[in-house]
Amino acid sequence: MNKKINNICIFASASNNIDEKYHKDAIELGKLIAKNNYNVVYGGSNLGLMGKVTNSAKSEGSKIIGVMPEKLYNLGIHPGDCDKLIITKGMRERKAKMDELSDAVIALAGGFGTLEEISEMLTQKQLGYNNKPIVFLNTLNFYDELISFFYRLIGEKFAQSESTNIYYVAKTPHDAINYINNYDFKEYNYLDKKICIKNQSNV
After folding, report:
1. pTM for the predicted model, two decimal places
2. Domains located in the chain, CATH noted
3. Is residue 3 classed as helix, strand or coil in its secondary structure?
4. Phi, psi (5° rounding) for residue 14?
5. Per residue in 57-101, pLDDT tens?
């Protein structure tokens, strides 16, 4: 590994009205993040899985950096127990700041916001703008249909088979952290591949 990982970016649901198993995995993940001497960058809320993973990590010694758009902050979305809370102009700026501050990414179960955030990170890695480890924590097989859809994209030539190299699907929090601990920061630049030159529409 040729780069040190300090901060893990967490994308996750802000809903409390979900299966308790999701909360248990979020708490376990937070503990493992701290145990492995990582800090957390996340969306700033103390709700749902976002709150569970960050509260757990902080209780075990991790530093927590929250990044929240001004609109949500002004609406009274309660920030978590952050060591640093950054308020951005909007959602785009929020994602850019989270990307800037993080060295790895884990997506827990979540809604449209989580899907939008992790999709942008995948696209950036596909195009060579980052080479961070990107992990889906697949609690209760939450991401099975999405991963199947990724393979449909490949099967129907909307993406190349190499695209499966840009993410990892973890069955458990331990699996997710183990992948990050052993990640090789070899550069992945989709645009350099000869197959992309053959068919540039597949980006």
Report:
1. 0.91
2. 7-144+165-188 (3.40.50.450)
3. coil
4. -105, 20
5. 999 999 999 999 999 989 887 777 899 999 999 999 999 999 999
